[in-house]
């Protein structure tokens, strides 16, 4: 998953520049750790750069009240504002990545805390800019751009700002909201602290004698155990703990949703959904269409659940049976060195330019590869250091998931790389709506390539099963989350309270509908209806639907590339290089997929059924 850093000014820096080859690479070694000295040579250099920002903020002050006087004034204030954003993002990227190297170190945490305070001051100090620009008549702004070619790089910013005209307040009100940025995200922060640090997670003993602490990370281990009793115990203890804290966790969700509703009302949007997706220039109808079409295709998910039960030999498949691999073990080399080879081979349909650039990144200090004590878990890409290059954090494991994660995060890495090289800073960042497309195209290409080269039916079955799980988790599960998120926002908009009990009730209805309980497909235990408390994405302001839309878009794009359809690869590479130069739905349409139509969803469902047909054929030969 791509990490989005907020510089607290308008948009995050999501990009990079071509890298200088690291010393390790020059020595002929393959570096396993990222090289942050390319951002700042030392923490002292970081502190010096931070100290210089305060003076740069003041560069916008002389233009207050004068933006409408000339194109030169407008350009000067935008130049200064974006320069501050770029440097602030670079500062935060360094501090954040330094902290992620070892979460136990207090130094980087202090650096991030310093920046949060500074960012709030920066937001307040520049909050007048957008409202003042919107006091300038639209025709005058057009004339300014015609008169001054230097404003061309800000055309998209001005276009998007014009679309927000009905929702931008006067300068004083915007300043007050900017001052309030210090308390934005409190619900998410408290919820994260509870889940990750303060809830007393239980420890269980697995059937092989291994002790497993069932925190959120341990649960992901417990739920994939081949021994069913181990899985049941993991689910019961994990969700039983959440049940005990559901009231407090519901309060954190309520705080976040109320924050979103407050913003909706203050800025005169039709709904919280509208307020969120309009920032990406996406019509709310796209969100609602996704939910509708996935609900129409629930029989495909139900077919998969029945197929999983058949393969696992379980008559009454339950929710705790959804994560184990369909094949217990397949011999394959997923070491770091071979993972790089597998991924680069699979990405050859994208062309030599793409493969060479990715290969260079893997050998040049852009990646922190292995887990170690204190290192942040998971994986992400950050392009916060625009003038340097993007960085990728992994916790590589020598299994299929490790290789797939490399392909996925590599998609983000290359999207950022191409986007920055082709665009100036103001248009180099791409919308969240398309952020998961590039990563998922890589996943699909890897899965297809590995299946084509698989040695034997068991290996093919394992890989096809992984593909089905990706579809289940990314398309169906994320859409269920999106439907839940929409429902809780609509509840608050109607004046209803969010409590642990009514969130359980709402989630129960959805999880049972999606998994076909009424049709006799799967019974969902009452205890598992507290799963909403485990999902941090409900604090992310209508983010999760984009996993599903990105996945179905990526399937369509990847199939066109693999089938060598005319223009498919070139159009896709153009998309990667387009950054934020056009609305995201338009960019995808130019690449070859129309997300205002249900056809990409239908195509994904056809593919899922085709994969299940292949698995049926393998099973019949057993």
Automatic annotation (TrEMBL):
It comes from the Bacteria. Residues 1-27 form the signal peptide. Residues 226-606 form the Peptidase M3A/M3B catalytic domain. GO terms for biological process: peptide metabolic process; proteolysis. Residues 132-198 form the Oligopeptidase F N-terminal domain. Its cofactor is Zn(2+). InterPro entries: OligopepF_N_dom, OligoPept_F_C, Pept_M3A_M3B, Pept_M3A_M3B_dom, Peptidase_M3B. Pfam families: Peptidase_M3, Peptidase_M3_N. Its EC number is 3.4.24.-. It is an enzyme of class 3 (hydrolase). Binds 1 zinc ion. Keywords: Hydrolase, Metal-binding, Metalloprotease, Protease, Signal, Zinc. The keyword Hydrolase applies. GO terms for molecular function: metal ion binding; metalloendopeptidase activity. Has oligopeptidase activity and degrades a variety of small bioactive peptides. Belongs to the peptidase M3B family. PANTHER family: PROTEASE M3 THIMET OLIGOPEPTIDASE-RELATED, SACCHAROLYSIN. This is Oligopeptidase F. It comes from Candidatus Polarisedimenticola svalbardensis.
